[in-house]
Amino acid sequence: MAELIFGEVPEVPVGTIFPNRMALYRAGVHRSIEGGISGRQEEGANSIVISGGYEDDEDNGSIIIYTGHGGRDAKTRKQIANQKLTRQNLALARSRTLDLPVRVIRKTSAGFRYDGLYSVEDVWQEKGKSRFTVYRFKLVAQKILKGALEATDLSAKIPTRRTITISRIVRDSEASRRVKQWYDFKCQVCSVVLSVPGGFYAEGAHVKPLGVPHEGSDSIDNILCLCPNHHALFDYGAFSVSDDLTLIGLKGKLFLRKDHHIDLSNFHYHREHILQVLGIENRIWARHADRTI
Ligand SMILES: [Zn+2]
Asked: 35, 79, 128, 153: which could form a disulfide with 134 (CB 3.0–4.6 Å)?
């Protein structure tokens, strides 16, 4: 199998136009003749083509909400079944986990245009316009991410593409600090308190995520106090919480103070959109996760 090339393809500057899919393929810009996502589920996705084929795609230039593949009728192109987090969809989810750059190609009236590198910032599921479950991927142009990094004036010690770290720092609000102090920095899942020079460390985890498109609120009824491990597992949808606080995907129960009122619709949202039911392809990682927590 040919090696996947991530990032820029030599001698293909941003803005290069290719007449058709075959030309894109030959140039090594998008190594799939028909599929919208190029890549392998074990290694990640290295490029996508936005052709306007999916009724649920949203393209705002620097931010793209891209719909996964599968579940469409070959003739009518209509969604007739639920999508799964397998194959090319899983590849794109891996690009988020592994922080890999994804080339974006747009179909224009002039042909297929290479539009630069993007990062996969978010993955979730929802009912599309057809009422079937589809996977959605938020991609953000890397030049925009770099701009945000410079604006927050963080030192060069933080790699440019560590966007999750950056956004967590920016988002550590008053509400988040309050919740952490309430729990004395003790993780609500595993009760671990991390002791670091200068005090204790925990993270404020938003149940319904902040920002486009989820628009969760930055308030104490939407924030948990978690250790970094459980925060990452929660944000990636490896576990969730039921209304009676039993954990889904992990053993045990969420510890919740009596005076900490979480809006249950936020748990509902997390279960519905962020929690991933792990298929066979995913279990190898689930086993790995079991070992590390
Ligand atoms: Zn924990």
From this structure: 128
Instruction: Tell me the C-alpha distance between 83 and 256, whole Å.
Output: 34
How far does Cα 181 stand from its chain's mean position?
Answer: 28
- Given a cut of 50, the residues of the chain with pLDDT beneath it are 149, 151-170, 280-281, 283-286, 291-293
Handedness of CA 221, 227, 228, 230 (dihedral sign): negative
**Residue 183 C-alpha to ligand 1 middle, in angstroms?**
12
Q: How far is the CA of 41 from the centre of ligand 1 (A)?
A: 28
Pairing of strands 194-196, 44-50: unpaired
> For residue range 73-129, what is the model confidence (pLDDT) as tens digits?
888 888 899 999 999 999 999 999 888 999 999 999 999 999 999 999 999 999 878
**Ligand 1 center from residue 37 Cα (angstroms):** 35
Q: Sign of dihedral through CA atoms 242, 246, 252, 254?
A: positive
CA–centroid distance, 202 to ligand 1, in Å, is 9
Between the CA of 230 and the centroid of ligand 1 the distance, in Å, is: 5
